[in-house]
Amino acid sequence: MRVGHGYDLHRLEPHPPRGQGRPFVLGGVAFDHPTGPVAHSDGDALLHALTDAILGAIGSADIGQLFPDSDHANEGANSARFLREAITRMRGAGFEVGNIDCTVICERPKIGPRRGEIVNHLARLLGCDPVCINVKGKSHEQVDAVGEGRAIEVHVVALLQPSG
User: Fold this and answer.
1) What is the C-alpha separation between 27 and 25, in angstroms, rounded?
2) Tell me, what DSSP letter sits at residue 99?
3) Is 9 exposed, middle or buried (0-12, 13-18, 19+ CB in 10 A)?
4) Residues with Cβ < 8 Å from 17, sequence gap 6 or more?
5) CATH architecture label of 2-162
6) Where on the phi/psi map is residue 147: left (φ > 0), alpha (ψ -120 to 50), or beta?
7) Residue ranges per domain, the chain?
8) Residues 142, 17: Cα–Cα separation, whole Å
């Protein structure tokens, strides 16, 4: 078995023209929210952290090395593309998902009401049973940029097991 940890943090700003925030997407699920991540790609912090957790578990290069923000091909890219590459590498290394544990830290939007939708979308992307995925929403209790609603932070732990 292999374990990987992924982490991502994005600043949140209002959408143009008041700021540089992109539409708020988390785990591939769009949220109606007045702010969004400032990012080169779509800024899906959950998919970024999940991608890095899988890549870390197999000892691969990380998301920034594989999909640098200096590459114009990644401008506004759907982060599912990054995750699909990690899944291809994971399967090529002879592994499959054992379980995934995700912690999303933000004041708003609240994750709980959309948790099932996020879990089901991640399961479809990963090709695994939804029971293998856990997503938790946490608050930062109004402490620092995350707690003030100016950022979103995500931690993901991936347990991979040999295929077959």
Assistant:
1) 7
2) E
3) middle
4) none
5) 2-Layer Sandwich (3.30)
6) alpha
7) 2-162
8) 26
Q: Can you tell me the distance from the alpha carbon of 47 to that of 25, in angstroms, rounded to the nearest whole number?
A: 9
Sign of CA dihedral 5, 45, 96, 98: positive
Q: How confident is the model at residue 138 (pLDDT cuts 50, 70, 90)?
A: very high
Place of tokens 């994005």: 10
Instruction: Centre a 10 Å sphere on the Cβ of residue 154 and count the other Cβ atoms it contains.
Output: 26
DSSP letter (8 states) at residue 130: G
129 residue type, one letter: D
Q: What is the pTM of this model?
A: 0.97
What phi, psi does 84 have (nearest 5°)? Answer: -60, -40
d(CA 118, CA 121): 5
- Cβ pair 155, 49 in contact under 8 A: yes
**Structure tokens, 40:** 């080169």
Angle among Cα 39, 43, 44 to the nearest 5 degrees reads 170
Q: How would residue 7 be classed by pLDDT, with cut points 50, 70 and 90?
A: very high
